[in-house]
């Protein structure tokens, strides 16, 4: 029995310290959290012969992780001096197409930080390009308060959670159809859902603490369990748990 296949969008990077060649950047913590949940993470890159709706066939879920700033041109703004977009100009379009394709195929999506921001932009929303220097969002831990009736609150099993935060941009105007289900004490939107879609998107980095914090690991468990449920094979969720325990990642 094979584990649910989770497509993870990767990016090329020439900023990986000490490497004498370009590398690919996907946080190992993200991949390990998928494996711990019983999933099989496979990285996809912007370059591909066919459209994402074809390339995602055979995958059971999609994860769009953190990364560089979204091109402000995608939300009608000129770049702020502090805005640092992806090395590859194709990265935004690739990940935007991947999210749209996953929603069209009906496979579950987990979007993290940059992924969360890109989703908002692709739904017609905008971003604050640079939060104040002293903002608690830049690199630290802060609380997020959740809407009690949200899917996210039930996945995390709490009304409020401490989160690992690492971003200098934030949602400004919320994208169409998105529901804000989590906010920081300063009002910054930290989580959204798309009603009727199997999608969770968070501004923080659950992978940073998932290895020791089952509450944050639960986001990856949700993705893999929904992916397994999608495969339609009975007992998939049981199978997933069995694989996760065996792997013990
Ligand atoms: N660039 C955006 C998004 C922040 C983000 O995804 N940070 C993660 C960077 C890579 C990592 O360390 O995981 C912003 O800063 O708002």
Quick rundown:
This protein is α/β, with parallel strands linked by helices and 249 residues long. It has helices at residues 28-36, 52-55, 91-105, 114-122, 151-156, 214-231, 236-247, and strands at residues 5-9, 11-13, 23-25, 40-44, 61-64, 109-112, 127-128, 140-146, 160-165, 170-171, 179-183, 189-193, 199-202.
Name some characteristics of this structure.
single chain; 249 residues; alpha/beta; Rossmann fold; nine-stranded mixed sheet; two-stranded antiparallel ribbon; 7 helices; 13 strands; disordered C terminus; binds ligand LF53FM6H; hydrolase activity; hydrolase; PuuD-like; Class_I_gatase-like; Gamma-glutamyl-gamma-aminobutyrate hydrolase family protein
Descriptive report:
- With 249 residues, the chain is α/β, with parallel strands linked by helices.
- The protein has one domain (5-239): Class I glutamine amidotransferase (GATase) domain (Rossmann fold, 3-Layer(aba) Sandwich), CATH 3.40.50.
- 29% of the residues lie in helices and 22% in strands.
- The protein has helices spanning 28-36, 52-55, 91-105, 114-122, 151-156, 214-231, 236-247, and strands spanning 5-9, 11-13, 23-25, 40-44, 61-64, 109-112, 127-128, 140-146, 160-165, 170-171, 179-183, 189-193, 199-202.
- The strands form three sheets. Strands 4-1-5-6-13-12-11-8-9 form a nine-stranded mixed β-sheet, with helices on both faces.
- Strand 5, helix 3 and strand 6 form a beta-alpha-beta unit.
- Helix 3 packs across helix 4.
- Mean pLDDT is 89; it is low at 235-249.
- It binds ligand LF53FM6H.
- The site of the ligand N[C@@H](CCC(=O)NCCCC(=O)O)C(=O)O has 12 residues, from helix 4.
- InterPro entries: Class_I_gatase-like, Peptidase_C26, PuuD-like.
- This is Gamma-glutamyl-gamma-aminobutyrate hydrolase family protein.
- Keywords: Hydrolase.
- It comes from Leucobacter allii.
- GO terms for molecular function: hydrolase activity.
